């Protein structure tokens, strides 16, 4: 086994790898950017090396600096985690040339699977079922359009260099083909520097079921069963599980055999995932799954496999890279119970899953597993850490195992209801709604489920009067904003002597709230809501609300929903909203991709004005109100957080 390894990644996956290394007695070196100087993975590692500024291109994607850090610290091997350099064969070559070990497959295996079209041709030859479609070399539009007609609509255009759901367009009708093709090409060119695409049959009622495989350097390959990742938004996974609901013995046998065949065809070593697309229109059938792609790395959702097999996949990665044989034979790998993973993201589900940033002023996970279940919280952040615009906005993965699917799902719901995040918009309520969705609970999942139920899954009910009362009570604790102090003790301390009353102003969305909070000598609190309602509505609070104060705000938790209220600072001067109403600012740093309006244009509320590319996605910036454009950002401009993108002509002006 290695004496010391370097982890070329950040966040939860860096922390995850460090934990297993420590268990095996392997010392660890972390690398970090400016933004991560105080990050958890840096604190956890035995040593840490600064590799550059915050943007990934200047730090986590700088293979040269990472290799230099490994050599300088005497690390023998590099674990790439996922994302970043994990599937970059040139990096693997450089690591090897420097006399270091890459903890992962060979550069040749990565190259074989790197382009989806070539990978499909290779898999077809190896006898693995492949999605019907065109994955040849030609790329003229006329030819691709005729192939699409041959395949039969609907079809899916996919970037051959694609990943993360980018450069993909579903086309339902031949008339839309050429426009979709240029869209997919534009996105692919920008994201991967390669605009070649393939066209395949859009599978009906598609389910995404993938198979975890492992190979060693002695020609052995095994599978560790399947994971279902059909719960997706924008082709990206949200809740994953193992095993796949409704899996039949015949289908599992066919799929795992195909996966092992695929791994063997490229002499695969280390952890990999074979992703299949499944036609579930008539349930799971052994002849209705097709190879989609292989991810030649550890997958984000690997913990669900660990939970149902009891195998530490990172330990296997280290052992195999160190030259050991696969620790278990196929017959020794068994499946037990059911596991889920929910990805907790800083994002606004109600606004099309727009990534969010912010400081996690309050962060609390369940401290014990729900009864009868086992849990893991995989995170790379602590309370007080920031979700910056530079990296993936994932906060944590909530992983749970139960004896069967129903009990594991119940446990997941309970964990989500006990998770508290304040300081950034998060998707906890969305995850909870999905975990409670009737179709999801029945195991009737397909990749379109979230889209079909989007409105119900992302709707946040208005806060109840009880919640507003709890927020008002929490807001009385004005002494120490930022800390999650107990509002109960501060007020009731004085109340031993006399009734204490305070008037509190709050805002929730557009609504102004006025409340009168009194603490009485008997230890009870009374909150009278004087606005927004006409009639004064009095609430007697006996139990402690789950509420936290953070700068300028109060967040009250009701189940998995966090209601955030603004507490206006009476000392603050003018309201900033006034100054901002004449302009539209960038919600995050990014690139102005496409501008659809010009100076002098009369625009109406909701009209798309420009597309901002930020955090790996395109965001449409629409007019917040009717108006006339005075100034608009230029196409291709790189903007930072808060830069004015659009200025409107204000009343009384030009
Ligand atoms: P998965 O199927 O495991 O979600 P993806 O190919 O979508 O795989 O990407 C894996 C993960 O790697 C993503 O969830 C994301 O967190 C991370 N990732 C991918 N690309 C980048 C990148 N350029 N920068 C940072 N993280 C990335
Ligand atoms: P990426 O590299 O971006 O992960 P994939 O080829 O793995 O690309 O596809 C991502 C997702 O797109 C899948 O998980 C699935 O939801 C959907 N998808 C891919 N191919 C098809 C298809 N032929 N029919 C229907 N949906 C598909
Ligand atoms: Mg994929």
UniProtKB/TrEMBL annotation:
It comes from Mesorhizobium plurifarium. The gene is mccA. Gene3D superfamilies: 2.40.50.100, 3.30.700.40, 3.40.50.20, ATP-grasp fold, A domain, ATP-grasp fold, B domain. SMART domains: Biotin_carb_C. InterPro entries: ATP-grasp, ATP_grasp_subdomain_1, BC-like_N, Biotin_BS, Biotin_carboxylase_complex, Biotin_carboxylation_dom, Biotin_COase_C, Biotin_lipoyl. Residues 120-322 form the ATP-grasp domain. Keywords: ATP-binding, Biotin, Ligase, Nucleotide-binding, Transit peptide. Its EC number is 6.4.1.4. This is Methylcrotonoyl-CoA carboxylase subunit alpha, mitochondrial. Residues 574-649 form the Lipoyl-binding domain. It is an enzyme of class 6 (ligase). Residues 1-455 form the Biotin carboxylation domain. Its cofactor is biotin. One of its GO terms (molecular function) is ATP binding.
């Amino acid at each position: 086994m290695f004496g010391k390894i370097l982890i070329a990644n950040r966040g939860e996956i860096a922390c995850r790898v460090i934990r297993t290394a420590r268990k095996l007695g392997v010392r660890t070196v972390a690398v970090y950017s400016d933004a991560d100087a105080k990050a958890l993975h840096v604190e956890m590692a035995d040593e840490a090396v600064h590799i550059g500024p915050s943007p990934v291109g200047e730090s986590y994607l700088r293979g040269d600096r990472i290799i230099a850090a490994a050599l300088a610290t005497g690390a023998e091997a590099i674990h790439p985690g996922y994302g970043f350099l994990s599937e970059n064969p040139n990096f693997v070559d450089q690591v090897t040339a420097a006399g270091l070990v890459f903890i992962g497959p060979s550069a040749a295996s990565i190259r074989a699977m790197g382009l989806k079209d070539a990978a499909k041709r290779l898999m077809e030859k190896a006898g693995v079922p492949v999605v019907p479609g065109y994955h040849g070399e030609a790329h003229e539009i006329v030819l691709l359009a005729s192939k699409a007609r041959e395949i039969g609509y609907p079809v899916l255009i996919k970037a051959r260099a694609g990943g993360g759901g980018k450069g993909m367009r579903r086309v339902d009708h031949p008339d839309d083909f050429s426009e979709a093709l240029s869209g997919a090409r534009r996105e692919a060119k920008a994201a991967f520097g390669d605009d070649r695409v393939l066209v395949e049959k859009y599978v009906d009622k598609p389910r995404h079921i993938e198979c975890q495989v492992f190979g060693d350097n002695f020609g052995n390959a095994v599978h560790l069963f399947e994971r279902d990742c059909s719960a997706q938004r924008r082709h990206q996974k949200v809740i994953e599980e193992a095993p796949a609901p409704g899996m039949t013995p015949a289908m599992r046998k066919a799929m795992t055999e195909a996966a092992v065949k695929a791994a063997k065809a490229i002499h695969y070593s280390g952890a990999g995932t074979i992703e299949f697309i499944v036609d579930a229109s008539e349930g799971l059938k052994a002849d209705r799954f097709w190879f989609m792609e292989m991810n030649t790395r550890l997958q984000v959702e690997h913990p669900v496999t660990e939970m149902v097999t009891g195998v530490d996949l990172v330990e296997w990665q280290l052992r195999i890279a160190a030259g050991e044989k696969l620790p278990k034979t196929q017959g020794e790998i068994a499946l037990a119970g059911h596991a889920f993973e929910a990805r907790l993201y800083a994002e606004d589900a109600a606004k099309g899953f727009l990534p969010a940033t912010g400081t996690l002023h309050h962060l609390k996970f369940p401290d014990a597993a729900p009864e009868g279940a086992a849990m893991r919280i995989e995170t790379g952040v602590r309370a007080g850490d920031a979700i910056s615009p530079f990296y993936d906005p994932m906060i944590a993965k909530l992983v749970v195992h139960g004896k069967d699917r129903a009990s594991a799902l119940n446990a997941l719901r309970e964990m989500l209801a006990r998770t508290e995040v304040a300081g950034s918009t998060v998707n906890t309520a969305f995850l909870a709604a999905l975990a409670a969705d009737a179709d999801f609970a029945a195991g009737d999942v397909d990749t379109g489920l979230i889209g079909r139920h989007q409105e119900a899954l992302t709707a946040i009910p208005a806060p109840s009067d009880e919640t507003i009362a709890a927020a008002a009570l929490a807001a009385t604790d004005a002494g120490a904003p930022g800390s999650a102090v107990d509002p109960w003790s501060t007020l009731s301390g004085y109340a031993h002597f006399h009734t204490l009353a305070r008037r509190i102003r709050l805002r929730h969305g557009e609504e102004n709230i006025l409340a009168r909070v009194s603490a009485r000598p008997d230890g009870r609190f009374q909150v009278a809501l004087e606005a927004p309602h006409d009639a004064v509505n009095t609430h007697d609070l006996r139990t402690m609300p789950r509420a936290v104060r953070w700068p300028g705000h109060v967040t009250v938790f009701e189940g998995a929903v966090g209601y955030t209220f603004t507490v206006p600072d009476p000392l603050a001067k003018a309201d900033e909203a006034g100054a901002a109403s004449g302009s539209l600012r960038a919600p995050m740093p990014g690139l102005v991709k496409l501008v659809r309006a010009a100076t002098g244009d009369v625009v109406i509320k909701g009209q798309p004005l420009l597309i901002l590319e930020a955090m790996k996605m395109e965001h449409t910036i629409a007019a917040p109100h009717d108006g006339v454009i005075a100034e608009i950002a230029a196409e291709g401009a790189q903007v930072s957080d808060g830069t004015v993108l659009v200025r409107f002509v204000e009343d009384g002006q030009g």
